[in-house]
Write a structure and sequence with these properties.
Layout: H1 2-12, H2 15-23, E1 26-39, H3 44-47, E2 51-64, E3 73-87, E4 101-102, E5 105-106, E6 109-121, E7 124-131, E8 134-135, E9 138-139, E10 149-157, E11 163-174, E12 181-182, E13 196-206, E14 209-218, E15 222-236, E16 239-252, H4 259-263, E17 280-292, E18 295-304, E19 345-354, E20 363-375, E21 383-395, E22 405-415, E23 421-433
Amino acid sequence: MNKYLISAGAFALAPFAQADVLGDSHATLGLRNFYFNNDFRDQAGSLGQSKTEEWAQAFVLDFRSGFTQGPVGMGLDALGILGVTLDSGDGRHRGSNMIPDEGAGAASQWSRLGVTPKLKVANTELRYGTLLPKLPVLTYNDGRLLPQTFEGAQITSTDLDGLTLTGGRLNRATGRGSSDRTGLAVAGGSRESDQFLFAGGDYQLGKQLTAQYYFANLEDYYNQHFVGLIHTLPLSAGQSLRTDLRYFRTVADGANDSAAGRASGYRVGGYTEDGDGKIDNHTWGASLTYAVQGHALMAGYQQVSSASNFVQPNQGALEGKGASGASIYLLTDRMLASFNRAGERTAFAQYSYDFAAAGLPGLKLSLMYLKGDDIRTRNGHDASEWERDLGLDYVIQDGAFKGLGLAWRQGLLHSQIDPNQEQNRLIVSYSLALF
């Protein structure tokens, strides 16, 4: 952390540059009040509790500076995060899914500070420090009170018309319910990797068509190739058809590619073809979304090959480090399940409506259903699961509370692999511009 503070101090030595940096700077204070209730009665006998029920408040200070003048612009961003527990009584806290562990119960508060120096040449920007990547090969998770963060370097360039290039190297992550940085792993892996490399780009082939290719390497776990295609077809005024195609090829790398390495903990969890924890996976998915006058109907299908689960970084098996909770870039990554198991075939559909079309701006509704079959299991019998999610959002449009967001999320999962559960989330959010 000290090297970042030294970098920040360097800006104070150049008053002319400091004026440019501060003049283009802005800071916001994000407030999020989160109530979380997860009912898992099916597990009550073994865990001694029938649900997780917790309530907490988040404060997220996001400062983003401008750049100094000259051929190489310099700047500095900072992210300060604080979570405060409002209620998590005895018997209602479970792991670090929502609030970090502290002793035998929940922490009363937890915090993080991330500082990110940045350089800019033309339309190419280099950032080094705390990052929130949102890429096909790595997506940070923001599904609870505080966001998951990563540490490392990322470079992004838009110097070529229609082409966005991104690359970088990461080596640490901090879970959404934690203040502790860890190395990287996959679900089921108990050994930390110190390097995640990624590179790729998005190319606009036309106004309505985007092609994507990305490559990622999680050292001692896997190599991953991603190819994507997104197309929006305007049908008439207020009508469109959006196509989203995604394909991943993931193979073992380093320690995961050897029996000795897998035995030492560099392995993937769940079913694998030879029961050895080796990563070997093809996953493809496709969705079509028809939108008309506030309505949107999406339907799709996804298929995971049978040799192993689909993987992306997931620190959940690194015991005692509060790193649980990860996102993966699949069309089926939803509230309660990701439908990414070996052999799984998933059909899904979603209906959403923006009430602005009916004269009620700020109000939105969504309802989704997913059904996965043919899941490979170690006992030789295929399994299935289904999930139903409901979302209702409202942002106040004017008056004293303009910008205040209210959200309700409700999910139901029935699975022959995971415990059945019903989850409710109530979220109140507000962003205050400081300058």
